[in-house]
């Protein structure tokens, strides 16, 4: 396990109280007059913690069940840690600012944008990338359905979509098309594979949607 | 008649792409995934000014940033900046973070010019700032091209309409940005490039760096989309090479999403004034079209239409006996245009097809009838009829604006023609057949995402009597026999005939060497075994009578328009396309879906927004440059017209051409007023309905 001190329990998507005070800084925090006492106490606690960075620090990530020991500047994102400091390039960079989903990985069972999470914040949690899905070269149902339904063209967005759909099926094994759209709302595809992604997700959940394509002879 | 077998087992089936498994598992190494030993991270400093004279670029402080290994200016000495985002210098180092620090440390001495222009209409004015010192932003008096006697013809018409239709600058935005990993050593230069043309990148790098072609190797195993933007080595490729040389290490320099939007291509805008006249029965009699658009700093001359840059085909797919066309390209201080999926055609189709529906309304005709009356092409005639039936046109059609209620429904259609799509005659390839029966094809093409590897495997499997998964296909390396760039919808029609030739030669040789009358199918392994110890290597090339060019295509769209919010919801698209002999139904459908969805973005969401006052692009990222998302896409039905007698024809481009026109017409049909400007945003709908004042424009 990581040697790094465990901070407050992670509440994904919400600020922890401590991080909030840290980000406020002294001036703003003391200006919050309502609870001057507790603010001061909080600040003291924060300041007594060891400040890390800006130089590289040891970071341990648990990716696809294996430990990755890295030396990273604290400002390195989880996506950069994977793509630039390990050989795990399955998660892609499409925008580096939380708008395309090509970088989607699972933190526990939750799909997140790896470009928008610092690597140091992703320690002590199970990270799954697209490389970690297929065991012994056997595609997962989701991957197989993407392949069968041709839910990919250039394939650059595909790892992200595969992760989003995988997370959906973990939470909801019997989704409908709207559930799939909702789960993939944060993923972008420029090649236009969207209709096929819906079909693939449903197929992975056991519902076969037939293609409506018709071939008609000219003569 | 084509030379393809009359009966096929693999060709025409739905074959999952043979590289699908490596793509869904993350094993496929895209150009941006390459981690050459000792690689460094590279980044580019771009201009924050739309116009400036740069007198010096000092990289000393940048070089001193810990981790930085090299820094190079884009040019030595003084140079001129002509758009926001133009390259100034590049750095490489051991981390992205070091590069970010170094970019901030670069000192640029610039004389910032305050005269610049980013708006087409402004740029056309006589007193406008000039993008190029050498001349005005557009030719003063573009020469019109006239056939017949247009003025007289208009006086003979029973119905005449005049309309104004405009389209925005569209950004390619492939999901993988442009870029390379370049390693330049004494032995030569290797570039792992995210490109749709490995040969053109090789030639471009060799030219820019004064290297022999034989010293440059370009590899593109997997790349994340291009759509026309990724043919050249680019400034970023040359910079990566220079960095690699200076740092003595491989450099990965991929563009950021911002870079991608600013500097590496786009589809030119169009401002089309169209006048059409027809006889009472709907027969088109006279056409007058005037168009200008911008290709950014890539200003060109004038022409009568159809050329590169901002010109569009007018009057698109229709034959009108009397036509006058005047077009010009106007330079502005913005990134230059590049080929973009069916250059000229989506705006051409949108403008003309919109005008056709406006004419139909004036004539009181069903717009489908007007098309059947005037469309000169027999294949499109058939496509319209088939599509209309499948779509339920006759049941759904009602007069423009007659849909009741707050949320109105409407339908529309439009047509496409794509002149290319045939094969590149220079395409070559090799196959190595091993005594154990394994076979590997090597072609110097690249798979842009259309499934080129799979096309090769399907064709080979058909001709050799094998299964596609038994065929190994290697592409994306300039060390392989040369192939075309993935453009003009030509790739399938280029590689299929070459593979046909390779297979014919392989079978003939196997027959001779093995003594077996037929080496195909169940005899394959026995025949290969007879090769003894040395593999058989055969070379083949493109052959005639196996592919063709020119495809048609029509699309039907159904929309809902909320007249209170202005929101357009695309409900359904029926896309009817012909592409000769169908190789793989599955990947073909995917390309058509993709074309429709890209066309939908063009119709409803996408637009480069420039700020007139600062000269800056305001939406160079995905939160503000809107692409269709999964919840936006409609129900798409594809109808493929099977024409095996024509041979292989590409589909990538025609599939995106008619979508915007069909959607725009469906919106017109729903609300009864024309929104003559793409993208059709809620604000424009509400303005057209008179519910809000129109946007103020310069
Ligand atoms: S790269 Fe993370 S969302 Fe685009
Ligand atoms: S498959 Fe190319 S971006 Fe989605």
Q: What are the key terms here?
A:
heterodimer, A: 219 residues, alpha+beta, Ubiquitin-like (UB roll), DNA polymerase, domain 1, 3 domains, five-stranded mixed sheet, 7 helices, 35% helix, elongated, disordered N terminus, B: 698 residues, Aldehyde Oxidoreductase, domain 4, six-stranded mixed sheet, 18 helices, binds FE2/S2 (inorganic) cluster
Account of the 3D structure:
The complex is a heterodimer of chains A (about 220) and B (about 700). Chain A starts with 16 loop residues before the first helix and ends with a strand. The model of chain A is unreliable at about 1-20 and about 25 (pLDDT under 50). Chain A is elongated and about 80 Å long. Chain A contains seven helices and six strands, in the order H-H-E-E-H-E-E-E-H-H-H-H-E. In chain A, strand 3 and strand 4 (about 110-115) form a beta hairpin. Chain A is an alpha+beta fold and about 220 residues long. The longest helix of chain A has 15 residues, at about 15-30. Chain A folds into three domains: about 15-50; about 55-130, Beta-grasp domain (Ubiquitin-like (UB roll), Roll), CATH 3.10.20.30; about 140-205, Orthogonal Bundle (DNA polymerase, domain 1), CATH 1.10.150.120. Chain A has helices at about 15-30, 35-50, 80-85, 140-150, 160-170, 175-185, 195-205; strands spanning about 55-65, 65-70, 105, 110-115, 125-130, 215. With about 700 residues, chain B is α+β, with helices and mostly antiparallel strands. Chain B folds into three domains: about 35-115 and about 180-255, Aldehyde Oxidoreductase, domain 4, CATH 3.30.365; about 265-420 and about 550-695, Aldehyde oxidase/xanthine dehydrogenase, molybdopterin binding domain (Aldehyde Oxidoreductase, domain 4, 2-Layer Sandwich), CATH 3.30.365; about 425-540, Aldehyde oxidase/xanthine dehydrogenase, molybdopterin binding domain (Aldehyde Oxidoreductase, domain 4, 2-Layer Sandwich). In chain B, the strands form five sheets. In chain B, strands 3-5-1-12-9-10-11 form a seven-stranded mixed beta sheet, sandwiched between helices. In chain B, strands 7, 8, 13, 14, 15 and 16 form a six-stranded mixed beta sheet that branches. A four-stranded mixed beta sheet of chain B has the order 17-22-23-24, with helices on both faces. In chain B, helix 6 (about 200-210) packs across helix 7, helix 9 packs parallel to helix 17 and helix 13 runs parallel beside helix 14. The longest helix of chain B is centred in the last third of the chain and has 24 residues, at about 490-515. Chain B is globular, with a radius of gyration of 27 Å. The chains are: A alpha+beta (about 220), B alpha+beta (about 700). Chains A and B meet through helix 3, helix 4, helix 5, helix 6 and helix 7 of A and helix 1, helix 11, helix 16 and strand 24 of B. One FE2/S2 (inorganic) cluster sits at the interface of chains A and B.
